[in-house]
Design a protein that fits this description.
Butyryl-CoA Dehydrogenase, subunit A, domain 3, about 50% helix, 7-stranded mixed sheet, alpha+beta, Nuclear Transport Factor 2, Chain: A, globular
């Protein structure tokens, strides 16, 4: 095995950890994978002979790439979601980021929605320290602050996350709202779609869902991107679509599933607050779907 192959193996051993961190910082699996790929490119061009902690080095690189991506997103006026509240956040006990094959399912879409309201520096500091236990001395140079200032960033983020509002938990109410969205989409009722969506709704689609939709445009599949923000853009995405979808429970929450021949191929999960859909997570990666608890409620 030559030196490049050995380096590639060491990188692959850290990939799931890096993707988990990037996903929490960016809220988009596609963007997280891009950030991790950029870290590999930088690693392959760097002299790491004197790097004792490759994981720490790579985590720092990924975090800086994510911070740049978040700042670029903000500069393009892709504004973070308006303040809305959270599900209470605590460290995910029993979950080892090393073995998380389904990032969105372990983090929870509701938490990702809450993280959208943080500034880029707050989000990076919070994720690195509160979720991945990096000391503030290591977080500080990543966000360009002193350790004390980095601690303040994470503390401010923590307060905002804890002070957010719990998503709708009443299953019958969830079903009512998702069914209204479903009917409006299938019927091409743009006004009714807007009525079901929060003005700052965010749609996240994994890479497989984006590919799946592109291949099925002629069959009426929605035209997807990794992240679509705002009620108007999301309503346009779904107007006249969802004809092949079926109502389902997704991990006990009202959702939709595409299951030709009875085999789930794509899943939509919804986060609802104050009677409006604030987030939609579209999943088509087979491994993620296999880990979901799916119950089709109507055929």
């Amino acid at each position: 095995m030559d030196e490049n192959e050995a380096l590639a193996q060491r990188f692959e051993a850290n990939r799931s950890h890096l993707t988990a961190a990037a996903y929490r910082m960016l809220g988009s699996l596609g963007e997280a994978e891009d950030a991790v790929q950029e870290a590999w490119l930088r690693l392959s061009r760097s002299d790491t002979s004197e790097v004792d902690n490759l994981r720490g080095w790579l985590t720092t690189v990924v975090a800086r790439v994510c911070l740049d991506m978040l700042r670029s997103r903000k500069s393009r006026r892709e504004e973070p979601l308006a303040e809305r509240g959270p599900e209470p956040v605590s460290r995910e006990e029993g979950i080892d980021p090393e073995h998380e094959a389904v990032l969105a399912d372990s983090v929870g879409l509701a938490l990702l929605v809450v993280l959208e309201m943080l500034t880029p520096a707050e989000r990076v500091a919070f994720v690195l320290h509160d979720m991945f236990d990096l000391p503030f001395e290591e977080v500080a140079p990543i966000v360009g602050r002193s350790p004390t200032a980095a601690r303040q960033l994470a503390s401010r983020a923590r307060r905002r996350v804890r002070g957010a509002e719990v998503p709708e938990a009443d299953r019958s109410r969830q079903r009512e709202i998702v069914d209204a969205f479903f009917a409006a989409a299938r019927g091409g009722d743009f006004a009714a779609l807007l009525a079901a969506l929060d003005p700052d709704v965010v749609l996240h689609a994994d890479a497989a869902a984006v590919q799946w939709s592109a291949a099925r445009q002629a069959a009426g599949a929605p035209r997807l991107a990794p992240a679509i923000r705002g009620a108007t853009a999301v309503a346009r995405t779904f107007t006249g679509s969802l004809r092949a979808a079926q109502p389902a429970l997704v991990n006990g929450v009202a959702g939709l599933v595409w299951a030709p021949g009875g085999q789930p191929r794509s899943v939509a999960r919804f986060t609802i607050r104050r009677g409006k859909i604030v987030a939609i997570d579209l999943i088509a990666q087979p491994e993620r779907i296999r880990r979901l608890d799916l119950v089709i409620t109507q055929r």
